[in-house]
Aspartate/glutamate racemase family protein
Amino acid sequence: MKTIGLIGGMSWESSAEYYRIVNQETNRRLGGVHSAQCLMWSFDFEEIKRLQHDGEWDKLAEVMKEAAIRLERGGADFLVICTNTMHRLADAVSSAVGIPLLHIADPTAEKIKASGFERVGLLGTAFTMEQEFYKGRLQQRHGLNVIVPDEDDRRVVHEIIYKELVLGQVRTESREAYRAVIARLIARGAQCVILGCTEIMLLVKDEDSAVPLFDTTTIHAVAAVDEALRLV
C-alpha cells in the first residue's frame, strides 16, 4: 500500500471527510481492520483564507510547497490537495517535490465523461468558478463545456462556503439558495453539476438537483485509494 500525503485544513471540515472516506474505502476493499496508510498536513485555515482574499497567491504557493515537502520527507508516495480552490497552486506544489500530485479535476472529469455528459455546471468558491485554473483544465484537457453561475449567484455560493460551510454550519435557507442556483444552471443547459468545493457536499445532496451531482470530495478521496492500492 502506498502512503497518501494529504494537504488539508482548508477547511478541516472537508479534510475530516477525506480522512473518513479514504479509510472507509480502504477497509471496504481490503476487509478485516485495514485502513489507509496516510499522512496529513493541516493548515490553520484563518491564515489561508486571509491570503486568498487578499490575493497573496505567491505567499500561498510558498506555504503549500512547504507542506508538500514536509509530507514527502515524512514518507508520502503521492500528494492530494484536499480542496478545489488551492489547485490554483497545483503546478507550484508539483514542482517542489519528486512525488506525483493527484489533481482533483482529473478523476472528476473522467467520471463525468464516463457517464456520457459534456455540459457541466460548476459550483465552488469565486476563485474556482471565475479563474481558469480549474474550469480551463476541464475544458482544455478533458473537452468539457463548463457553465458557471451568473455574478449574483456566484456571490451567494461563495459567501455560504466561507461564512457557513467552513464552520460546519448547514442551514436550510442556504440549501434552498443552492437548489435555486443549480436549477438556473440546469435551465442554461447543464447536464450535471460539479460540487467544486469540498465543503459543498456537507450541504447539497442528490435530492437537491434534477440532474446528477458530482461530489469532488468523494471522487478525489476514492481516486486516492485507487492510487494507494495500485500495484507498482
